[in-house]
User: What shape does this take?
Amino acid sequence: MRITNNIILHNTSININGNKGNVDTLNNQMTSQKKIQRPSDDPVTAIRALRLRSTLSEIDQYYEKNIPDAESWLSVTETAISSMQDVIKTIRTQCEYGAQDSLTTDNRKTILTQLEKLRDKLYSEGNADYAGRTVFTGYRTNKKLTFTEYEQKTAYEITQNMSYSDLQEHRYYGNDVIVPGNQTDVKDKTKIASPTQAALLTSVIDNSGKVSEYILTCRNMGIQILPPDINEGEAGFSVSGRSIRYALTAIKSGGRCLRW
Assistant: This one.
């Protein structure tokens, strides 16, 4: 390839103009102390700069405002709790002193007056606030914790209408609960089988001695042990009406050498 003087001059001109552009960019960065002047100069760097600026702004807010605000809030709360603790101790001391038989009526009246003042002070500490926000009322910081004034004229009107016909009786039973059928069954609850007794028998189904012992206990309580039934029986002991149905897996032919 033949390189002419025009090609050399053209390439040199392009390099000189490129260097001038780079120098101009560096001069602008040095003067403005900014890497980019417009987001179009470097979109990736612009996005990173915006994210960094937002992060720094959040950190500044936490450090300069949120943390001091939380420390002041906790300080007010701690001071109020400490004051209430001292008030409660004083109230207890006054009550113990007032319980003495040697005090006169005037002494007790004086103690009562002091207790009323301590009560008001306790209410006042309960309404402690920071920057107009009450510290002991949860998220309702615009409300007072206690009421120091009696509102005898306040009236409330109930608009809901309800009659005797709106009242209904609901009974909920679960876990195969057996409901007594008469007053005799209510008095003698031991004759009614419960799922707990059936579960207890099932838990010792591999121990023939324990099963025989528990069956004897149930019979002594008046609970009938029904024979196994292929239609109604289950793998374990189960409640059947007011009795307990023998487990199918505990039958001798089913792998268990037990008798019901």
